[in-house]
Structure formats: C-alpha cells, structure tokens
Amino acid sequence: MLLRSTRAVARVDAVHPGPLAPFEDALERAHIQAAAALYVVDDRDAANLQFTLAALKVRPELPITMALSNEGLVPHLQELHPNLVVLNPWEIVTPDIIRALKAPASTTVASAAALPPDRIRHPWMRGSIVLMALAAAFAILLVGATVFFHYSEQLDWITALYFVVTMATTTGFGDISLRTSSIAAKLLGIVTMISAIAFVSLFFSLLVDRIVARRTENILGRRRHRLVGHVIVCGLGRVGYHLVERLRGENYPVLVIEKDADNHFLAAIREKNIPVMIADATVANTMMDAAVDQASAVASLVNDDLVSLQVGLNARAMHPRIRVILRIFDGDTANELGRRLNIHYTISTSAIAAQAILEREARTT
Questions:
Q1: Looking at domain 2-87, which CATH architecture does it have?
Q2: Third-level CATH fold of 94-118+224-349
Q3: CB 278 within 8 A of CB 222
Q4: What pTM was estimated for this model as a whole?
Q5: Which terminus of the chain is less hemmed in, N or C, by CB atoms within 10 Å?
Q6: Burial per residue of 74-102, b for 16 or more beta-carbon CB atoms within 10 angstroms, e otherwise
Q7: How far apart are CA 287 and CA 280, in angstroms?
Q8: Pairing between β-strand 35-40 and β-strand 64-67 as defined by DSSP bridges
Q9: 270, 330 in Cβ contact below 8 A?
Q10: Is the pLDDT of residue 110 over 60?
C-alpha cells in the first residue's frame, strides 16, 4: 500500500487481515493525515478491503484508489464513498499481454532444442512397451510349446495348439494327458502352466493399472492434448484467469496448466470448457502433453519469477520458435532477462498495473 503526500511517497507494510485497529495504526504511522491520496494495492483482496475501511474511518475525505480482483464487489464498494475508486489491476494487465501475443516478435534468435519432442518418451509409451513385451513372450511360449507337442506327442497342429491352450489356461479337460509322455514333455508342460499363469496375471494387472491411471489423469486433465496453434497459460492466478477469459473472448484456443488442484478459479474455467491440466509446468512431460511443439505461444504467469523463467526457457527449448511471455515482478529484471536470454516478451505485471493506476488518476485530476 502506498500513501502519496505532497512531498514524498511513504511505504506501509501490509499486515495480516484482522481487526481494523492494526490497519489504523499502520496508517497513522504513515502520516495519513498529511497524505494527498491513498493507494491500496496489496495482492490480497481482504487486506485491501480492511485497509480501505480503516482509511475511510480515519480520513473519510481522502481520495482512495483500491485494487480488487472480485468484480462482484466493485459496484457495492463504489457506492461506499464518493472518493473511493476501485480498480482491477490484474485485468488491466491482460491487454498488454494480448498485444505481446499479437505483435511481431522482437527477436528472431532461436535456441537449440535441448529436449527435442521425439526424444521425450511418455510414460504411457513405456507402459505399452512392457505390455507388448509380455504379450510377445507369452505368444512365443505358446508357439514353442505347440511345435514341441506337435512332434513329441504326434499331434496335428490344431490339436497341439488346443492342448497347449488348455494347459496355459489350466482348464484340464483330461482328453489329452502327459501321463505316459517323456520327462521333457512333462517338464515343458509344467513350465507352460506356471509361465502362463504368471504372464496372464502380470498382463492384466498392468492393463487394469493403465485403465485406472488413464481415467484418473483424464479427470485431472493429464492426457496428450491434440491442439494446434493454441496458447498455453501456466499459472491460474488473477492475471492468468483474466488472460484466459480474454483469449477465449477473442477465439484463441487456450490450454491452462495449473499445479494446485484446489485453485478457486478452476471451476469457472472448466465451466467454459477450457482444457485444464493439473500438473507442474516445469516438467518436460507436462509440456509435451500440452502439445507445446504445436503451440503458438506460452504465457508463464506463476508468482515465482524463477519458476516462470524455467517454464519459459523449457518451452522454448522444446519449440525454439514459440512465442514466450514471462511474468516477472520487477520491471528492470524483466527487461534484462528479455535482452540477455532472447525471451520474446517479459512483462512486469506490477509495473504495468501501477502505471495504469497512475495514468487513470492523472486523467481524473
């Protein structure tokens, strides 16, 4: 939160939500009585609301600009006091991101593909290889045993195959028996029965595990998406939510990657039939499932600058020509990262929101 006085701008540290008394004390220490305006721009709506209520109590006539992401409360709070202006700075940021997606890339430099798509083996592929290997081994066992009993027991091919299948399935009709057969035939019969039980058990266990895992991943959005030209939005915070809404409103195909399954924006996004993956965007397989190699852009809007940078660089390594939008808190850091790492666009949402609030006030004064 910032207090603008006639001589200086003083910073007041936000406190945890609670009774209004601590907020009033913080405002008094910041010399609210001498301030010309008050900006309440904490990331938490509850803290902003409590600071605003405390300020209206201490200095009702003071012009107040308040940040609030809950749009449903805006008209009610606007009526609270004529000197109160309620803005959604996170919605203000989205037009700049949209412009960054539409504008020509500021750099043509492409990094080498550190993780080429064809070299990343998906877990489902590994599971399929195991299942195919088991099926092939089982088929080899059946064929080998059929050939052996065709010659050993003087059976025709169909009868030999029928005998092997009855042993493998432990059906045991008794119409063909190894009671008088050679020791080798009896030993092979034992191996066939035991091996068949083992193969069938392993095969169906893995198959059921794959079916259950696939259903679970589909519920969480973890599947290989077949999208082309889409925008991948990583991080479903306030900025991410407004960006997804804006992209969908302009008919952009969108895919959301969010790590927190309890994110309160998820329900609203899913109601709009926007595909969502509950996964870690820094993991290579997650990006491959999101079809990053076919995406037109990736916007990493997580709250952690280092994580945001990692997501962007990993995406560019897999798809060197992809448009990368990074949310970086500090404006100077964003510009420096963009210059040194050849990131197409680095955006400081806090800087954009602060500038927009100041410009709005300048127009109204």
A1: 3-Layer(aba) Sandwich (3.40)
A2: Rossmann fold (3.40.50)
A3: yes
A4: 0.56
A5: C
A6: eeebeeebebbbbbbbbbbbbebbbebbe
A7: 9
A8: parallel
A9: no
A10: no
